[in-house]
Amino acid sequence: MFAKSLRSFHLSRKLYTRHYCLAAQEPSFNRIETQYVNNLKIVEGTEQIPIYRLLDVDGELLNASEFPSIDKNLVQRFYKYMRTLKEVDKILYECQRQGRISFYMTGYGEEGVQIGSAAGLNDDDLVFPQYRETGVLLWRGFTIDQCIDQCFGNKKDAGKGKQMPIHYGSKDHHYVTVSSPLGTQLPQAVGAAYSYKMMKNKKCTIVYFGEGAASEGDAHAAFNFAATLQCPIIFFCRNNGYAISTPATEQYRGDGIAGRGSAYGIAALKVDGNDVLGVYKATRIARNYAVENNSPIIVEAMTYRRGHHSTSDDSTAYRRQEEIDQWKKLDPIVRLQNFMEKYGMWDNELQSKWVESIRKQILNSVVQSEKVKKPKWQEMFSDVYHDLPPHLQEQQQYMENHVKKYKQYYPLNDFEQS
Amino acid sequence: MLKRAVKLLRTNISNNGGRSSSSFTYFAEKTPENRGPTEKLNMFQAINNALDLVLRTDPSSVIFGEDVGFGGVFRCSLDLQKKYGKERVFNTPLCEQGIVGFGIGLAVTGTTAIAEIQFADYMFPAFDQIVNEAAKYRYRSGNLFNCGKLTIRTPSSAIGHGGLYHSQSPESYYTHTPGLKIVIPRGALKAKGLLLACIRDEDPCIFFEPKSLYRAATDEVPVGDYECELGKADILRTGTDVTLIGWGPQVHVLLEVADLAKEKLKVNCEVIDLVSLLPWDKQTVINSIKKTGKVLIAHEAPKTSGFGGEIASTIQEECFLHLEAPVSRVTGFDTPFPHVFEPFYLPNKWRCFEAVQNLVCF
Ligand SMILES: Cc1ncc(C[n+]2csc(CCOP(=O)(O)OP(=O)(O)O)c2C)c(N)n1
Q: Per the database entry, which stretches of residues form a coiled coil (chain A) (predicted)?
């Protein structure tokens, strides 16, 4: 069959063009409607997926019919949470600079992505975060105190001081604990979505990742598993232009991460990440799509990482200030404020007094959290396994004896005493 | 304004929640006498210097990995892209299995491939490429093909605040793999010579760079080209009573322990830096223990299946009748590497000193 089509390709190029429609005689490839042609064409590039936005750069509503009943309260909540996230970031960033906490990562410029997507989900859809998604947790009610306790690794930290700052997790908020190795959370989120499908609980999972992490082998595995096993999952890519110093232009070619969707057989969309209303709407639609069809969907939010990658990074070593400034004009918080002002939703209270009270609350939380001791050091041995196995009991006992003898050399005062 | 507000909080704090200070004191190398002019370099500068030398003298060499273009997150490839161009010093997509697989391909076709994995903790996605591919290329092809021109550099080990995934010392996963060479420098001078040796070695090498040494380890480093022999341990201090064995920053902990033992216990320790874990210098270790009869092995990695176990069993096989006390190991615990508990996790000088005391009193 194939030989025949090749032969006709060679012999009859000029004479006639013939489409081989296989429906009747030829087997199909993986059930995809196949077309044969005898004029060879290299396919280069595909159509670009356009970027959806509801608010333009000045905060003008672009499609009033898309958003018939804009809920003022909801919009005000968007603003408050975005702003809170930014204030938390500013203060904890400073705390790191002063050596109070060991590490921090800000979400500057990505507040709209985090809050908009969180609002588009149901609060019990399971989140598999990367790390720059603190806003999602805040939106779900994780408190500022909880964030700060984690960053200090004190005994109130649910993670028991075991991980670096910003590695939040909360069962109550359906937010799986952050893990530093990139990409690992993607196939896990697919497995969790499959679980949900079997449970028929009408929930989905959402996995957040950067366009950098999308290069990991795990990302490929996740896309392919989700497509073939039909899992209700949102692949939420925060495309913020950089993976540490590596610009997106050196990370991938083609139409971004959403552009991969069609190759995997996954639905996809792109949204302006600096438009919180757009992100909200897109995520809501994606969520319903995933749950109703038991199908994966890729949401690629186009944004820009305005801060350094982390407190270990100085981004002026690889990008120009003008570039950052250019994006400052697209700030999602300012854009929402402009919208609110134009449409009579702005409340001057939101500006000075409220921001001041949030700052006070955060600073106060820092003061309190800093005073709380770290967990007792023996916690080091807990949670390696469900039960403490004999070899770890032995190691703990050895360390107890050692510390008793050499106590002046250990920072025992910083830790809860057992 | 916020800065000030946060600063004002300082008056209220008693303890320090931030970075802990370095867990060792660096013992600088003696300035070598027969290797020409030297310059004062820390370890990341010495590595940069070695890479520069390779790019300059070996036109087929390339350096690649995540963020190496702008100098790498630990600055080891600083300015090399500017000097040698994007074709030879370049960023890759964020994919460790890709980096190593790509590196093997380069090496198989005769290119000197120097891959950087940003953290040793993040090398595991490349485990298959390393263990099943790089390590076995020569063997499985009857020596028709090999990837000896591949060197993988990667920052490893504790840094004071790295938590689970920026602190691990995963060397023994790789020492369990025939076909690889595993090397860990203790400072700047050794780093340059060992890295040059790894890059030119006929077999694939993994070069672990203890990240606490990047800035803390400053030596007078020869400006010119030199290599330190792979598979060769260094005796850093000779002694007659107890042998102390380590590698990387742990060597400096042990040097301090040797001083302490001398001062407090009047005990003379022999300190050995193993330098190369695969292959490792059995003979130097055996000779030492035949002399001292007592040995402490210390490493940051967890105890179970740590490389100390390998050394201990070899000592038991080769020096049984010379041993005057059981072989002692002081290591990280069999837990993941914890963030705030790091001061309790590390095999610090007090834990090592106590072990020496126990050996002496055995
Ligand atoms: C497997 C793995 N490799 C490397 C790293 C080091 N690393 C941490 S964040 C990062 C960049 C991630 O970029 P991206 O996914 O785009 O997310 P962004 O930081 O831009 O939000 C890298 C390389 C890691 N954490 N895990």
A: none
Count of other CB atoms within 10 angstroms of residue B29: 19
Radius of gyration of chain B (CA): 21
Distance from CA of A135 to the nearest CA of B (A): 20
Distance CA B146, CA B99 (A): 17
Cβ contact A143:A156 at 8 Å: no
Residues 6+ apart with CB under 8 A from A342: A59, A60, A61
| B331-361 burial code (b ≥16 CB/10 A, e <16) | bbbbbbbbbbbbbbbbbbbbbbbbbbbebbe
Structure tokens at B139: 């063997």
Contact residues, A window 323-352, toward B, CB-based 8 Å cutoff: none
Q: Three-state DSSP class for A191?
A: helix
- DSSP one-letter code for A175: B
- For residue range A119-151, what is the model confidence (pLDDT) as tens digits? 999 999 999 999 999 999 999 999 999 999 999
CB proximity B309 to A under 8 Å: no
Would the CB of A377 count as within 6 Å of ligand 1?
no
Q: What are phi and psi of B298, to 5 degrees?
A: -130, 130
Neighbours of A170 (CB within 10 A): 19
Distance CA B258, CA B292 (A): 14
Residues in chain A: 418
Strand partners, B299: B331
Is position B252 annotated as part of the catalytic site? Answer: no
Both tokens assigned to A379: 């916690």
Q: Which of B9, B67, B338 sits opposite A162 (nearest CB)?
A: B338
pLDDT in tens, B54-100: 999 999 999 999 999 999 999 999 999 999 999 999 999 999 999 99
Catalytic residue of the set A12, A28, A102, A180 = A180
> What DSSP letter does each residue of B247-276 carry, written as one string?
-TTHHHHHHHHHHHIIIII---EEEEE--E
Give CA–CA dist B198/B202, Å, rounded: 8
Cβ neighbours, 10 Å, residue B21: 7
> Residues, chain B, total?
362
Cβ of A273: how many Cβ atoms within 10 Å? 31
DSSP string, B73-96: TTSTTTTHHHHH-TTTEEE--S-H
User: pLDDT for B15-55, tens place per residue?
Assistant: 444 455 578 999 999 988 888 999 999 999 999 999 999 99
Count the Cβ atoms, other than its own, within 10 Å of residue A30. Answer: 6
Q: What is the C-alpha separation between A239 and A258, in angstroms, rounded?
A: 10
User: What pLDDT does residue A67 have?
Assistant: 64
Helix, strand, coil tally for chain A in percent (to 5): 45, 10, 45
Angle at A153 between CA A147 and CA A155, to 5 degrees: 100
Q: What share of chain B is helix, strand, coil (3-state, %, to 5)?
A: 40, 20, 40
Q: Are the beta carbons of A5 and A20 closer than 8 angstroms?
A: yes
Instruction: Say how far apart CA B293 and CA B243 lie, in whole Å.
Output: 8
Name beta bridge partners: B237: B271
The pTM score is 0.94
Convert the pLDDT of each residue in A328-362 to its tens digit. Answer: 999 999 999 999 999 999 988 878 899 999 999 99
Put simply, whether B161 touches A (Cβ < 8 Å) is yes
Nearest-angstrom CA–CA distance, A115 and B223: 54
DSSP secondary structure of A10-63 = HHSTTT----EE-TTTSPPBTTB--EE-SS-------PPPPEE-SB-TT--BS-
**Contact indicator for A268, A285 with CB cutoff of 8 Å:** no
Least confident piece of the model among A90-94, A101-105, B30-34: B30-34
